[in-house]
Amino acid sequence: MHFFQKAIAGSAIAVLCHAPAGLAAPTxxxxxxEAIRATIEHNPQLSAYQFKADALTGEQQSAGLRPExxxxxxxxxxxxxxxxxxxxxxxxxxAVSSVIELGGKRDARLGVVTARQQQLQTEQRVLTLDVxxxxxxxxxxxxxxxxxxxxxxxxxxxxxxxxxxxRRQVQAGRLPEAEVLRAQASLARANVALxxxxxxxxxxRLLLSAQWADPTPDFQIVQGDLYALPPSVPLSDLQSRLAxxxxxxxxxxxxxxRSAELREARSNRRGDVEWSAGVRRLQDSGDSAAVxxxxxPLSSGRRASGALATATAQQAGAxxxxxxxxxxxxxxxxxxxxxxxxxxxxxxxxxNEVIPALRRALKATGDGxxxxxxxxxxxxxxQGELLDAQLAVxxxxxxxxxxxxxxxxxxxxxxxxxxxxxxx
Length: 424
Fold this sequence. Notes:
Blueprint: H1 6-9, H2 11-16, E1 29-30, H3 32-42, H4 44-47, H5 49-63, E2 70-76, E3 91-100, H6 105-171, H7 177-209, E4 221-222, H8 235-240, H9 246-267, E5 273-282, E6 287-295, H10 300-303, H11 305-370, H12 376-411
Parallel strand pairs: 1-4
Antiparallel strand pairs: 2-3, 3-5, 5-6
């Protein structure tokens, strides 16, 4: 893989390929490194480029051929009348002919094919990067789905424990029967949410294995740290890396192809010289003589002017597309950097302020509920607020990682500074 392919397959692996501390990896787990390796080996999109490369190899062989030699025979003055009756006055000419290409046409043809081969290589690298970015994003989505499943599993356990506690209090006459009914309804909703989270994990797992054309994944979970923050990189540094953007490199290769086509069009302004040389046999005298001819086309430059104008316009159009894409990507880069910083700030606020406060509030509410100072409704409200905040933490962490992947693809360079590890 080339440098801008490694932007995803390198830095993202460093973030996601290890499990948080204390989490033992089961035998059916999968890392991002393994997922990327399987994708590169088995993704059907990546294998199609070999056929295109073979086709261009054939074009290169054809473009490199020099003008062919031809052997011709011409018989004159036969089967006529009078003195030209029969073959007594026949003239037989045998000649070899070919074309002398002027203006560097052969080199120009080869230049076009070479530019197309380089463009194909760039297209393949860009597609590989897109595929790696896709499998990394999908891997990240599965990691987030697993985190959400863990939260809903814990919420389901809490709902069951709460229902058990309520039944004991109802039997002791401390609470009315209606509280048990509310708890049963809350547990039912928790069960629904848990089933939805389980289905989401199965869906994301299938979408991940589809990256390497496997409809029956043999892994149960993926191992990844969702909460490793990216390094802080100044916007000016990100903008300076934009020259490595794979889409811009692809547009640059398009400019190279159009430039090669323009050189080929210019080479066609000079006409080719056709020549012929041979021997003529004069039947009536028995003599032989050499025959030489040269043919040069007229107004070849004017005939090539249309193709030259077309090639010039196409080259200018390719350059304009490159410049326009650069402006668009700069705006996208600024937006992504701002979105990532917003997600980082949101994650920090949730983890450092909101979650601790809601945990203290839940503990106080739970203690007060046991003492009869708070109702079951207030207890479930505190539990729901904490769960919502925990799910918001997962969502913010996922957005941090997703914007990191997008920034790395946009700049074509991995953010290789030391990561700031944050435990969930």
